[in-house]
Write a structure and sequence with these properties.
This protein has helices at 58-62, 80-83, 258-266, 274-278, and strands at 11-12, 15-27, 42-51, 67-76, 85-99, 102-115, 134-147, 152-164, 175-189, 193-194, 207-219, 228-241, 246-257, 279-291, 294-301, 316-323, 334-344, 347-358. It starts with 10 loop residues before the first strand and ends with a strand. A hairpin with an 8-residue loop joins strand 11 and strand 12. The strands form three sheets. Strands 2-3-4-5-6-7-8-9 form an eight-stranded antiparallel barrel. The protein is built from four helices and 18 strands. By secondary structure, it is mainly beta. The protein is flat, with a radius of gyration of 23 Å.
Length: 359
């Protein structure tokens, strides 16, 4: 197969493929609190469907037409008595760079994970890593692919996979696996698309400002599987468009943690200033990668007041945003829906749902 990756105003490759990948790796003990033994090999068995969805849109031109990748994956963990098995469904994008018979792939995928043996105080007390059967999954892969003929290819990939529940239920240290895999793919050609040049339109780069409200559920760290409390948030933010692909984010976050409010009440250590003890605030900066109506964002912040911090003064977030108006032309006003994971380095605090308005 010969690829044309920079095609504009002429036919371009249009195809789908079905593949099978088998990977072997190890669970990474990323915390001193990680109790279970992890000796042995962890194996992934994965079926994939990948398609170059070339229907012309501006964001696809800017991203050089990545592939849509859908996977189902069965994971057989080392130390099955503690971790059991997991079943995963994932979707994401695969960025390609190819020449003649060689193709380089980088993919990221998000999805849902079902774990067969989470923490249980009676039947599985050693598993202080995963506290719920239903979790979120992130999978990154980088590799090379060689075409044996027009329809068949073989590949070698490095894989990093993570799953956890965002502290929706404790314990939640999360499972991280590093692996190496081999794959076999079968390709089927489709009718080529005529790709018009959608990427040369002039893009205004204004400053925009907005406000958002947030809601999350948070479980106290101990005891495991304890009661859950609400977290209410308010965010003032600014956006600066840098290019067709990126925008710079900054702002100020406030969150009110009813978990902490309840703890103060239990110990009779509250008074008129309870609200200010429980309220936490932090400035942040970040970046967002844009896909038409969607965006993937990441940010880092800082707690100016030390007694507001959990274990560190540096919170981080990753999130997915949906904008009601397409971002290719930077609309004046927009509504934004967000799903955001807040962490402190490798420790997740909560997953928040946000509704915002961009002026």
């Amino acid at each position: 197969m010969v690829f044309k990756l920079d095609a504009q105003n002429h036919p371009s490759n249009n195809y789908y493929n079905i593949g099978y990948q088998q990977s072997f790796g190890a669970i990474i003990k990323h915390s001193s609190n990680f109790i279970p033994k992890v000796n042995g090999i962890t194996s992934f068995y994965e079926g994939t469907y990948t398609s170059r969805f070339l229907k012309p849109k501006a964001w696809k031109v800017h991203h050089h037409f990545p592939e849509l990748k859908i996977s189902v994956l069965y994971a057989r963990y080392a130390n099955q008595q503690v971790f059991g098995d997991s079943y995963n469904a994932l979707i994401g994008l695969n960025y390609i760079k190819a020449h003649n018979k060689w193709k380089r792939n980088f993919s990221y995928q998000f999805g849902i994970n079902y774990s067969s043996k989470p923490y249980n105080k009676v039947t599985n007390p050693t598993n202080n890593i995963i506290g719920s059967k239903l979790n979120l999954t992130l999978k990154l892969a980088y590799g090379l692919e060689y075409f044996i003929n027009q329809n068949l290819s073989v590949g070698l990939n490095a894989v990093l996979m993570h799953h956890s529940n965002g502290s929706a239920q404790t314990p939640n240290l999360g499972i991280n696996v590093a692996a190496v895999g081999v794959e076999l793919k079968w390709y089927q050609q489709r009718e080529p698309f005529i790709i018009n040049d959608l990427g040369n339109s002039q893009l205004k780069k204004p400053h925009q400002f907005g406000v958002a409200v947030a809601y999350a559920r948070q479980e106290r760290v101990k005891p495991f599987n304890g009661p859950k409390y609400a977290v209410y948030g308010l965010q003032f933010f600014g956006l600066k468009r840098l290019s067709n692909l990126w925008q710079f984010n900054y702002g100020l976050n406030f969150d009110y943690r009813t978990t902490l409010a309840q703890a103060y009440k239990n110990y009779d250590s509250y008074g008129r200033n309870l609200f200010f003890k429980v309220m936490r605030w932090q400035p942040f900066i970040g970046a967002e990668l844009l896909y038409g109506n969607f965006g993937l964002s990441a940010s880092v912040g800082f707690y100016p007041v030390s007694n507001n911090a959990i274990s560190t003064r540096i919170p981080t977030t990753i999130g997915a945003n949906y904008y009601f108006k397409n971002l290719d032309k930077v609309p004046d006003n927009n509504v934004r829906l967000s799903l955001v994971l807040k962490t402190h380095f490798s420790v997740a605090e909560y997953i928040a749902f946000m509704v915002g308005y961009v002026f």
